[in-house]
Design goal:
The chain is mainly beta.
Length: 1449
């Protein structure tokens, strides 16, 4: 036996069960009620079967002469069951699980007889087959080498691949055995498209060993439903075999995804359909409660009237079915999906898939759903994905997912509501919020259906309710299955059982009791029924006991449960319990099951850990790809939420409102150019994880990537050993300019492609290239790759197969590289390049054809009846919003050649922000073309061309670009510059424009330029009129520049005027002043006066129209001036009475007089009364003055001055009342304000004082004090006042709140602000002022409260001996001063002779009851407290009367 390792061990798969079902399968037969159920043991039947035992199958392939030619490998139908140790118990367990998970179709299946083979026999046969196959292969190879020619034959299928029907997510392997010499080349096809297993690594696996060829499809999905073909080819020929793979999903008996039956005749056979999805929907954003429609236009060619493609919509890879939430519509050419009421469950990747018999096309885009506005501000978002995990007659477990938005505060928990189907009454199921995202709802009525919803709550309030769940009935699963009436699912085996009547038998113990789910709110038990049971239905009692005790307590005391699952509530959190279950029927209660392990009540599921390593990557100009490292050791992970924040804003917004279960997500809807940071958190039923660390900032802008593949490869010219290829630019250039292209080619021999070879090592910049060193009459395929700074893109699809043979046709080849520019609503410009192959004669013109993009081939129409020699053509009169395609044909003398490839469809529409090229001639006569683009990117450039060709001669033009504007200036404009000038802006959506400079346009521009270079005579001032002395009228103008040859014509009403007594004319050519003087204006002088000037070729004229009221006013002015002249012949006022304010704030009324003599007198009047001479009347040097010092309101009035002598008199008045007086006072106030000194700071014992001095203060002066630019509202603490010429602001008891900027504003009478003086009371200035204030305040307090002797004591007291002396004085001080009486500087004490008293703290008395001469002396009182000391002295002199002295003697 060979020691080689069997191939099934190499790849870890089990192929040893053969292609037949094993004997473990069985069948079950049940009779009606009352009839015994009989079972047949399949194995025993085999042993007692009289049929002879089947011989072991042979796996050798022989020819007609019984010569061994190969080995037949059986088709293996399943890899799920491995022969080793597959016990009946595990088979039963898997069968039960399989039955609960799916309903499998049974129709159309043929059950094969199976034979029982032990594991050892199977492995031994497999090893023998492999060893034998290897021996045969080595023998065959040796024989072939010995005699190759005799063995060469066409490939032949020994075993063809078989069709398979598999479930989704399973793997399938197609096998075949092929013979042939030389060894055939085997290729697998899917729907006639070759399968590239290297490009789809992990999806397909192709193996070829020992003439056995296999195709393995991993994890099948719906897209793998197709017809597969295996082709074998060698030099002798080619053969093919077909097999179909059907992928199904667990959805019941009828597969709802099979195509609907077609009605009517459909002629689709033999037709290859081409499907295109256009007018796609993009990434969409909606809000909960809104309606959203997604639609695409589907073009299927050819269009068959009755043909109905299969149109399917998917969300996150799950097929959508029509429902009240999803409405689907197919109009024949447009597929629409309407989401009637958006919820966060609707968020995801939506895919439209259109399937025909020729294949399918799909398109996908993401839909984001934001939370609706919360009913309560700060409330969280609604939960989502509410569903029922487990349902029986006792309870239903409801689960949901936590929302991404918590409203700004943590979610406290959730409330579950239920509603019976058919009613609208919602009932709250839990009294307190629960944090775990699963909850068993009890209190249900058996057999009734319910729907559920969930609400989240935080400190701010309750969220909106979630979308309701699907209806679910409160009944046991067995009852539910019996009501549906479904057939038993096919499990891959038939179980043969036999039940004997077992009346009166008590059921046994339940098996495998376990705690399947445990939270702090509830606990779920599950078990399996006992192995033996009676005919009656078995029910169960559940018992519990506290761990460590043996006191069992029945939980469901009233009604036993029917289903082998049970939920327990009201368990004490933190306590440990054990559980057991008893079976019961009519015969009694059975023995309890084995108890469970001790289970502690509490949440067993922890919240996941925070994700890490969040990495954002640029994607598009509105999206970013965010990837992260998954949470470690996360259990039952639901998904992840991603949040984004603009850098510096600290405002986080959710990127997804539905958890994603991947570690990479594209965040859409971002602002271009902004920088964002991202964070992620995980979620499971226990709650949300902490946030991950913030990512690095990333700027939102399109990422630079390698370009997409070019397309449309065609042959432009072909000679014996070379071909010229042309191709179209990639639709996506990767965000950077394409730097070049690389061309590869390969030879095709009899349909077999060779290896790719490089045609060029260095990149070519043009979209055409000549591939050399080819072989004549050989066939070749080509592919092209584009490159930019990001790298070389993937290659294009291989081109068609082209034959390398020299073209000998007379007509030219096809034009190439068609481009469309300057797309507008009614026109566009088509560009192309001339054919590489000219034909027999040079190309002499082109024809342009056009048709609507969706029109048939017959709709092509020519745009030009005469050939155009240009390689561009402007298409006009287009229909707006219509899409068009174009083609071009070249012509020479031999005729019209083949048309070019059709251009891409372009819609005739003027895009928003489109600008046109503008022509401009500046003041210096410089002609320029200017173009502005509003949609530029940082990489955009302006590209100018003439006649749509690069401008090589830069000497005639100067180009300048600033920002989004570009200008082309003509250096020396002339006939050489006639043409079409166009400008294209790169890296935009086709921003371009052109301007045609025809000979006529060039002439016009040159004329404008000349006019600008050589303008008409410039005028400094146009014709004007002014009055001269005696009322004479002067008409004049002044030219800016004029030569000595200039001349002027004076025209009045089209008549030339001549020099004379009436008209005095003067033309000063040095100054350019032209004037006409008239002595007076008469009525006949009404009309138009014109000065016509000429200086060489330059001319100019200026006119003045004097008619109507204008002429009359001018005539009156002339008369007035004439009278004024006569007035001035006597004493008169040169300047009428006015006023001025001196810096000393005195008001001086003055007027200037002229033509006065000594005899001329001047009189002053106020309000009609003559002013006395002692009012400082002055009359010196032609100026008459009246000074008013310290003006006040009483000085307001009307002042008048009269000049007179024998020649006459003149009068001047000045009204100093109302507004005029206010204006005068404003000027006075302005002088006062300007005389103010800078605002200074000083301190007093009351506070801080701000002050300024003015030279003169007026009581009418309006002053406003400001603090921090706001007017101060005065109070007892803030006061202002005036002392002499000092204006002050007193801040009593200042605090730090008084620090700031202070200002005094001197206002004017018009209400406008005036001069301000400011000072900053802060910093050191405030500290110094505050310290000085405190010092002065302390000194003032000390001065106020120090001890004082107020009075009452005389200087000298003379008293007679024996009399009583009583002196009293007032004292003051705070605190109460200490009083000390002294006699001759010695302290006195109070006794009966000298009584010292202090009454009421204010009155100190000094009493001597009977004075004697000994009491004579100098007395003083000393008062003292902490603020100071003061004393008062008096002298007491005691005298003895003479009679008393005599008596004593």
């Amino acid at each position: 036996m060979s020691t080689s390792v069997p191939f099934y061990r190499k790849y870890g798969r089990s192929y040893d069960r053969g292609y037949r079902y094993q004997s473990g399968s069985g069948y079950s037969v049940r009779t009606s009620a009352g009839t015994r159920t009989r079972g047949l043991d399949r194995s025993s039947q085999s042993r007692s079967d009289p049929l002879p035992k089947r011989a072991n199958p042979s796996y050798l392939a022989v020819d007609r002469e019984n010569q061994i030619i190969g080995y037949v490998v059986p088709v293996f139908r399943t890899s799920q069951e491995f022969a080793a140790g597959y016990s009946d118990e595990s088979r039963l367990r898997n069968t039960a699980t399989y039955m609960e998970r799916r309903d499998m179709f049974t129709s159309g299946l043929e059950m094969e007889r199976s034979e029982q083979i032990s594991r050892k026999e199977t492995m031994r046969e497999s090893a023998q087959r492999i060893s034998l196959n290897k021996t045969l292969y080595e023998h065959e190879e040796h024989f072939k080498r010995m005699n190759e020619d005799s063995l060469m034959h066409v490939p032949e299928f020994i075993i063809k691949p078989r069709s398979h029907t598999v479930w989704e997510k399973q793997c399938v392997r197609l096998h075949c055995t092929i013979s042939g010499w030389p060894d055939p080349r085997v290729v697998w096809y899917k729907n006639n498209v070759a399968i590239d297993h290297l490009a789809n690594a992990g999806k397909y696996k192709i193996e070829s060993k020992y003439s056995v060829h296999s195709l393995e499809i991993n994890k099948c999905d719906f897209e793998d439903t197709a017809q597969y073909r295996v082709s074998a080819m060698n030099v002798k020929g080619e053969v093919s075999a077909y097999a179909s793979v059907v992928v199904k999903r667990f959805k019941g008996e009828v597969d709802e995804f099979l195509p609907a039956p077609r009605h009517g005749p459909v002629s689709e056979y033999g037709i290859t359909f081409q499907t295109n999805i256009v007018d796609n929907f993009g990434v969409s954003f909606g809000k909960e409660g809104e309606t959203m429609s997604l639609g695409c236009t589907v073009i299927i060619y050819p269009a068959l009237h009755h043909y109905q493609p299969e149109v399917q919509w998917y969300r996150d890879g799950v097929l959508l079915s029509p429902s009240k939430w999803n409405h689907m519509h197919w109009s024949g050419d447009r597929a629409t999906l309407t989401l009637t009421h958006l919820n966060k469950e609707d968020e995801g990747l939506y895919t439209l898939r259109v399937t025909t018999k020729s294949g399918y096309k799909s398109y996908s885009a993401y839909v984001f759903v934001r939370d609706a506005e919360a009913e309560v501000e700060g409330a969280p978002g609604a939960p989502l994905d509410v569903c029922c995990l487990d349902a029986n007659k006792d309870y239903i477990i409801v689960s949901w997912k936590q929302p991404a938005v918590d409203g700004g505060s943590s979610i406290l928990g959730y409330f579950v509501d239920r509603c019976e189907v058919g009613t609208t009454h919602w009932i709250q199921c839990n009294d307190t919020p629960i944090k775990f995202a699963r909850f068993p709802v009890t209190g249900l009525v058996e057999g009734r259906s319910y729907i559920f919803r969930v609400r989240a709550v935080n400190q701010s309030g309750m969220s909106r309710p979630s979308r309701v769940s699907e209806p679910v009935a409160a009944m046991d699963p067995a009852d539910r299955a019996r009501m549906r009436g479904n057939t038993a699912p096919w499990t891959g085996q038939i179980i043969v059982t036999e039940e004997e009547p077992a009346e009166g038998i008590v059921p046994g113990r339940p098996q495998e009791l376990q705690v399947t789910e445990a939270t702090k709110n509830y606990l779920v038990l599950s078990w399996k029924p006992p192995g033996e049971k009676g005919l009656e239905g078995v029910m169960y009692y559940v018992e519990k006991c506290v761990s460590g005790t043996d006191s069992w307590q029945r939980v469901n005391t009233e009604i036993p449960v029917k289903s082998p699952r049970f939920a327990l509530f009201d368990l004490a959190e933190g306590n440990s319990y054990c559980f057991r279950v008893r079976c019961c029927n009519a015969a009694g209660v059975g023995e309890p099951s084995d108890p469970t392990e001790a289970t502690t009540v509490g949440d067993k599921l922890d919240t996941p850990s925070a994700p890490s390593k969040v990495v954002p990557t640029r994607n598009t100009d509105t999206s970013v790809v965010v990837s992260w490292e998954a949470s470690r050791d996360a259990k039952e992970l639901v998904g992840y939420y991603i949040e984004a924040s603009v850098v510096g804003s600290n405002i986080w917004e959710p990127c997804n409102n539905k958890p994603v279960n991947v570690t990479r997500f594209i965040c859409h809807g971002l602002t271009t150019g902004e920088k964002y940071v991202f964070r992620v958190r995980a979620v499971n039923a226990a709650g949300l994880s902490p946030f991950s660390p913030e990512s690095e900032p990333v700027e939102v802008k399109a990422a630079i990537a390698s370009p997409a593949p070019p397309y449309g490869i065609s042959v432009l010219e072909c000679v014996r050993d070379s071909m010229v290829l042309g191709w179209k630019q990639p639709t996506f250039i990767g965000g950077a300019d394409i730097s070049g292209y690389f061309v590869d080619y390969r030879e095709v021999v009899d349909g077999v492609e060779g290896k790719w070879q490089e045609a060029n090592i260095r990149a070519v910049s043009e979209r055409a290239y000549r591939v050399t060193d080819l072989k004549e009459n050989k066939k070749y395929q080509f592919q092209v790759r584009a490159a930019n700074i990001a790298g070389v893109g993937i290659p294009s699809l291989p081109s068609d197969t082209f034959l390398c043979e020299e073209w000998t046709i007379a007509v030219p080849g096809p034009p190439h590289d068609l481009q469309l520019r300057e797309v507008r609503g009614n026109s566009m410009v088509l560009l192309w390049k001339s054919p590489v192959y000219q034909g027999r004669d040079p190309v002499n013109g082109f024809y342009v054809d056009m048709k609507e993009a969706e029109a048939p081939e017959e709709a092509w129409r020519g745009l030009n009846t005469k050939v155009t020699e240009n390689s561009f053509f402007k298409v006009k009169n287009l229909k707006e919003q219509e899409s068009y395609v174009f083609r071009v044909r070249a012509q020479n003398q031999a005729g019209v050649g083949k048309s070019s490839d059709i251009s891409e469809p372009v819609q005739a529409v003027t895009k928003p922000g489109t600008k046109e090229i503008l022509v401009d001639v500046d003041d210096d006569g410089v002609i320029s073309l200017n173009f502005e683009c509003a949609n530029m990117t940082p990489d955009s450039k302006f590209v100018w061309s003439k006649n749509y060709e690069d401008m090589d001669d830069s000497s005639r033009l100067t180009m300048e670009t600033k920002g989004n504007k570009s200008k082309v200036t003509f250096n020396s404009p002339g006939e050489e510059d006639i043409g079409i000038y166009s400008c294209l802006v790169t890296h935009t959506d086709g921003a371009s424009s052109s301007y045609t400079i025809s000979p006529e346009e060039m002439k016009r521009l040159l004329e404008i330029s000349h006019d600008h270079k050589f303008p008409t005579i410039p005028l400094k001032s146009d014709l004007a009129v002014e009055m001269l002395e005696k009322g004479r009228v002067r008409f004049w103008l002044q030219a800016e520049k004029i030569s000595a040859n200039a001349k002027v014509d004076y025209v009045f009403n089209d008549n030339v005027m001549a020099q004379g007594e009436k008209y005095k004319m003067n033309f000063d050519k040095n100054t350019g002043v032209v004037e006409l003087i008239m002595e007076s204006l008469m009525p006949e002088d009404e009309g138009t006066f014109t000065f016509q000037m000429q200086d060489g070729k330059a001319t100019n004229q200026s006119s003045l129209v004097l008619i109507g009221e204008v002429f009359k006013d001018l005539q009156k002015e002339s008369e007035f001036q004439r009278k004024e002249w006569f007035r001035k012949q006597g004493p008169h006022f040169i300047e009428y009475l006015g006023y001025e304010v001196t810096p000393e704030c005195c008001v001086v009324l003055k007027c200037k007089v002229g033509n006065i003599k000594k005899e001329t007198s001047a009189l002053w009047y106020k309000d009609g009364r003559e002013i006395k001479a002692d009012q400082n009347l002055g009359f010196t040097e032609g100026v008459l003055k009246l000074e008013i010092a310290q003006i006040s309101k009483k000085d307001a009035g009307v002042y008048e001055t009269v000049l007179k002598d024998e020649r006459g008199q003149d009068t001047s008045k000045l009204n100093l009342t109302d507004q005029c007086f206010k204006d005068l006072m404003s000027e006075v106030f302005n002088y006062i304000a300007n005389s103010s000194t800078p605002l200074k700071i000083t301190s007093t014992d009351q506070g801080i004082r701000l002050y300024t001095f003015v030279s003169y203060y007026n009581d009418l002066l309006p002053v406003t004090w400001h603090y921090k630019d706001s007017a101060i509202a005065f109070s007892d603490r803030l006061k202002s006042g005036v002392v002499g010429d000092q204006l002050w602001l007193q801040i009593s008891e200042p605090t730090e709140k008084d620090m700031g900027k202070y200002a005094i504003e001197f206002n004017s009478n018009d209400g406008k602000g005036g001069l301000r003086r400011t000072v900053e009371l802060s910093g050191q200035a405030y500290e110094d002022a505050l310290a000085e204030f405190k010092r002065l305040k302390a000194a003032a307090i000390a001065e106020k409260n120090r001890a004082r002797v107020a009075g009452g004591l005389p200087d000298v007291v003379t008293i007679q001996e024996g009399k009583a002396l009583n002196l009293t004085c007032n004292i003051s001080g705070e605190p109460l001063p200490q009083v000390t009486w002294l006699k001759n500087d010695k302290e006195l004490t109070s006794d009966e002779h000298c009584i010292l008293r202090l009454e009421s703290g204010k009155f100190a008395s000094f009493t001597i009851t009977a004075v004697s001469t000994a009491d004579t002396g100098k007395y003083s009182i000393l008062v003292k407290n902490k603020y100071g000391t003061e004393s008062a002295e008096f002298t007491v002199s005691v005298f003895i009367p003479d009679e008393v002295a005599a008596r004593k003697k």
